[in-house]
Amino acid sequence: MPALWIAHVAVTDADAYGKYAELAGPAIAAHGGEFIARGGRYVQLEGRDRARNVVARFPSLEAAEACYNSPEYQRALDHARGASERDLVIVEITE
């Protein structure tokens, strides 16, 4: 079943986070991920507000998790650590 990678992000260092975004996109695409929402308008109804919300669709939960654990994504993630506050969850789509 396909899965969604959902990230809620507060960027604290735009330059470093920009490098993360530059590297993360190709890593996500290499694992079959495609962005369906990235930084667009949103309404915060509950929980902690973070101005950047990203949703990517993957062919499976396993593909999304493999992407996260891949050396390419981990290299990208090195730039996000210390440059953002993030929550990331992978959710399987039940159709």
- The CATH topology is given as Alpha-Beta Plaits
> Major sheet, described briefly?
4 strands, antiparallel
Oligomer classification: single chain
**Total strands:** 4
Kindly report the spatial arrangement of strands forming the biggest sheet. 2-3-1-4
Would you write up a description of this structure?
- This protein has one domain (3-92): Alpha-Beta Plaits (2-Layer Sandwich), CATH 3.30.70.
- The protein contains 3 helices and 4 strands.
- It has helices spanning 14-30, 61-69, 71-80; strands at residues 3-11, 34-38, 52-58, 84-92.
- Strands 2-3-1-4 form a 4-stranded antiparallel sheet.
- Helix 1 runs antiparallel to helix 3.
- It is globular.
- The protein starts with a strand and ends with a strand.
Outline the secondary-structure elements.
Elements: E1 3-11, H1 14-30, E2 34-38, E3 52-58, H2 61-69, H3 71-80, E4 84-92
Antiparallel strand pairs: 1-3, 1-4, 2-3
Organism: Lutimaribacter degradans
Protein name: DUF1330 domain-containing protein
Features:
95 residues, alpha+beta, Alpha-Beta Plaits, four-stranded antiparallel sheet, 4 strands, DUF1330 domain-containing protein
Describe this structure in a few short sentences.
The chain is α+β, with helices and mostly antiparallel strands and 95 residues long.
